[in-house]
Amino acid sequence: MHLHPKDPNFPHPAVLHAVCASASRWASHDIATSPDGTRRDRFAEFHVMMQACVLLSWYFYQEGRWVEVWIFAGFQTRVAIPLRLNYPGTFSSQGGNSPGAYLAPPKDFVDLECRRRTWWMTIMFDRIVSVGGWLHGVDEKDIGTELPLCGTDFDSSSNVPGNPQDLATPELFIRHPAGYTDSFILFLKSVMLFGRVTDHNTRSNLRAPNLPTKGQNPFQIPGFQELDNLVSEEFLESIPTSFKHLGVNDDGSLDTDLYMVHIVPHAATITLHNHFLNFNESNNLSTARCVNATRAILTAYYRLSETSLDISRLHPFVTICWYLAAVVQIQLCKYFIEINDTARESTVWGEINVLRFIRHAYLWQPVPDRK
């Protein structure tokens, strides 16, 4: 502890949190009695299990260590449920035949919003690491927590009423209330929307006798049409005017959340339609959806490349979006090779190399000094 906080040998914050929580057994007198009569140290239970895990998950996420994020996201969801962070107001005194919450009611505005944000960061990690087709740790139907407040209200402790939207709110993904919408909340919605695509794919394939085929009409699959409209068109069209831009500002700043808002739905579209790509059918809607989504992801990168902004500041999730775009381009290139269209093959090869280059640059460039 004599080291400077910026010293490379300084203990990781999560370790310090764990030490403090362990020490609280002897030093802390902040004992809370749960509704079921259990006496618990509020600091030790909540602080180390959730906040430290969120910190570690974020570190692993930034490092691209997806296996660790998957493990920690799973652990966090298991811990958050008995804490009742999935309930409105992030507290419940009882739950059917199950014991009550391990946490006392939020003591103030900041405590309540911290619980909301801890929960939603947990769910966001769970959705992000599941995009490859893995099951989510918590089903949407079991989430009653309202969406977080805008960051400015949280930072200023404005004590505004809670967000009127939760996952059960009708038209959640196309209605964005003024005063309760910022780039982070839109990013959260886009990730949850991608989560619905993951749910659709995993559940459709779980008991299907055969894998999806290129000749299959996906719009005959229950729920596909509605999800396609929402992911491919309605969400992006509904984004409020003040958030229509990519977050690449003239003053040299970059809103990384807003940038992702504009490309995550395209990555979700590719994930939804990729199994049904068929370049031999000129009117194949899945092909058109994937090609248009890939173009949008590339266009967003080209806009960023026009600036001197550091791409390493983007969310690591962006590499998955670039990868999915490359998957489509590789299949398109293969098709052009098969029909001997060398001109368009050359163009697509160039775009594949762009995607390959930016992923390599993002993953391997040195982390800039942020002093």
TrEMBL record:
Biological processes annotated in GO: DNA-templated transcription
Origin species: Antrodiella citrinella
PANTHER family with a match to the protein in the record: ZN(2)-C6 FUNGAL-TYPE DOMAIN-CONTAINING PROTEIN, ZN(II)2CYS6 TRANSCRIPTION FACTOR (EUROFUNG)-RELATED
GO cellular component: nucleus
Transcription regulation in keyword set: yes
Subcellular location: Nucleus
Pfam families the UniProt entry points to: Fungal_trans
CDD domains linked to this entry: fungal_TF_MHR
Molecular function GO labels: DNA binding; DNA-binding transcription factor activity, RNA polymerase II-specific; zinc ion binding
Protein's UniProt name: Xylanolytic transcriptional activator regulatory domain-containing protein
Keyword entries, A-Z: Metal-binding, Nucleus, Transcription, Transcription regulation
Residues in Xylanolytic transcriptional activator regulatory domain copies: 49-168
